[in-house]
């Protein structure tokens, strides 16, 4: 069962989201506040695949809730809902661990497309059955295990979201090759992704914070100006 937690303090918007997601087969739980959402999440026995979080809520806002949910799970898919004018909110949400964002107002078609896209990534990330030639890919001090879906740096595990893992896996399969932003977007988010290409850049900033000794002077995840990024092995 595909399970999603909707967190929205405006009942009309919450009902709109719930109706459309139930219509295509999602099992929906609803919360009107961040505090209620955490209570539902912590006491749930089945687990959730996705959380859909409004940013602007009284009490615990969407940013704080995103951080708390990400502490509890690296594999939970998180989508933030932002107003059209809240450009920095989009970036802030992604840096805190969200996988995607949807700008209000949005259509049922966009909502379902973005949720379905993220669900497919979550499902792939949690799947135990994968046809891989080799479990481990080692580049310098890093070892990526494609079966357990883990990344080690000098033997120490680095916690990655499913989006971050897919990006790292793409780089490890193409070391020292410049990868175009559009190619990364299509590979990780899918060719039918509704959002903007800059989501790649924000996730790269987040990845650098996790893997680089000095994120402001990266040695592994290198920017290729005018094109995209590459994993540097030298």
Task: Write up what this structure looks like.
- This protein is of the alpha/beta class.
- Helix content is 41%, strand content 23%.
- It is built from 8 helices and 12 strands.
- The protein has helices spanning 11-23, 34-43, 62-72, 87-95, 108-126, 162-172, 181-188, 198-211, and strands at residues 2-7, 26-31, 50-54, 77-83, 100-104, 136-139, 142-145, 150-153, 156-158, 179-180, 221-224, 228-231.
- The strands form 3 sheets. Strands 2-1-3-4-5 form a 5-stranded parallel sheet, sandwiched between helices.
- Strand 7 (142-145) and strand 8 (150-153) form a beta hairpin.
- The longest helix is centred in the middle third of the chain and has 19 residues, at 108-126.
- It is globular, with a radius of gyration of 18 Å.
- The model is unreliable at 128-133 (pLDDT under 50).
Give the low-confidence spans. Answer: 128-133
Radius of gyration: 18 Å
Work out the helix count.
8
SS class? alpha/beta
Helix content: 40-55%
- Report strand %: 15-25%
Q: Using the alpha-carbon principal axes, give the shape.
A: globular
Order of SSEs, N→C? Answer: EHEHEHEHEHEEEEHEHHEE
Main sheet specs = 5 strands, parallel
Strand order of the largest sheet: 2-1-3-4-5
Oligomeric state of this protein? single chain
Beta strand count: 12
